[in-house]
Amino acid sequence: MSERAVTGGHGGGLTDARRRLRASVIRSLLLAPAGPLARVEVLDRVGSTNRELIARLRAEPNAWPSPSMLVADHQDDGQGRAGRTWQTPPRAALTLSFALQPDGPISSFGWIPLLAGLGAVTALRATAGVPASLKWPNDLMVPAPDGADLAGWGRVRKVGGILSELVETSAGRVVVVGIGVNVSQAPDELPVPSGTSLALAGARAVDREIALVALVVALDELMVRWREHDGDVHAAGLAAEVASVCSTLATRVRVELPGGDEVTGTATRLSPDGALVVVDDTGTERHVRAGDVRHIRAT
After folding, report:
1. What percentage of the chain carries pLDDT values higher than 70?
2. Do 207 and 255 have their domain in common?
3. 239 & 263 share domain
4. pLDDT digits (tens, 9 = 90+) for 16-68
5. pTM assigned to the model
6. Does 10 map to a domain?
7. Where does residue 16 fall: left (phi above 0), alpha (psi -120 to 50 degrees), or beta otherwise?
8. 67: cis peptide before it, omega within 30°?
9. CA distances (Å), origin 246, targets 32, 169, 211, 238, 271
10. Is residue 131 in a domain?
11. Phi, psi at residue 53, to the nearest 5°?
12. Contacts (Cβ under 8 Å, ≥6 apart) of 36
């Protein structure tokens, strides 16, 4: 597909889907005092927004007060979990990274990517009108456009992902949260059958600037509640909200653990530190803190 406007979809015409991000508009809406961010950088092109932001943090940590954001109009070597990479056509996706210095104990930091997922789900539901959900720990999901079953995924497809990294700088500990969302890709622009885009999912609107602003506002509101409760997600009501959008819960899953082992069972709940609690086929509770999750029976 060329860089033309994308039309069609269940919600009507989708025009100007691949226009350039307007840095001046984004800054006017999101920079303090009008917005929640202390710094906003909009770049034309980077390999990975996480790698770029981490490099800048290490070079000039005091230049990136919390919360700061780096967003790229085009990311051509994106980072995923376990060293995976992914690419998108120019201006077909929303790619950004935040620099956060959250309050609360480091033991609670496992909730930060889940809160980013909750913020992204909230923003996509509000702006694109798609029934987005979160697959633990970091996949953003929407219903399959054709309603077909896919092994390990059921009738849902991945529309985005989240990567959280803890960075030590001379100015202190920083959590870098990267978020990528497929926006206007056509079927032949998706690298794997399990992927999709907002346009293919029938989004009523495909505007990266609108989605970006909604995502930042949603995540900021969640982090404000986090700070008000010193990182206690249960006291803040955040744990229950994450659980309410997590499609993995109450689902039979197969988890591929680091090192090659697997756990098969039913995902029952999230533990106090954000781990996925799976009751395996022997009835034993397993607390999974890292791994690739496959839904054996989607809900």
Report:
1. 91
2. no
3. no
4. 679 999 999 999 999 999 999 999 999 999 999 999 999 999 999 999 999 99
5. 0.90
6. no
7. left
8. yes
9. 32, 33, 20, 12, 13
10. yes
11. -70, -40
12. 30, 67, 216, 217, 220
Residues forming beta bridges with residue 262, ordered by sequence position: 256
Q: Rounded CA gap, 176 and 29, in Å?
A: 22
In the chain, the amino acid numbered 180 is G
Which pLDDT tens digit goes with each residue over 65-106?
A: 999 999 999 998 755 555 555 678 899 999 999 999 998 888
Number of domains in the chain: 2
Written in H, E and C, the secondary structure of the chain is CCCCCCCCCCCCCCCCCCCCCCHHHHHHHHECCCCCECEEEEEEEECCHHHHHHHHHHHCHHHCCCCEEEEEEEECCEECHHHCEECCCCCCEEEEEEEECCCCCHHHHHHHHHHHHHHHHHHHHHHCCCCCEEECCCEEEEECCCCCCECCCECEEEEEEEEEEEEEECCEEEEEEEEEEECCCCHHHCCCCCECCCCCCCCCCCCHHHHHHHHHHHHHHHHHHHHHCCCCCCCCCHHHHHHHHECCCCEEEEEECCCCCEEEEEEEEECCCCCEEEEECCCCEEEECCCEEEEEECC
- Give the range of the structural domain holding residue 267, as residue numbers without chain letter: 249-297
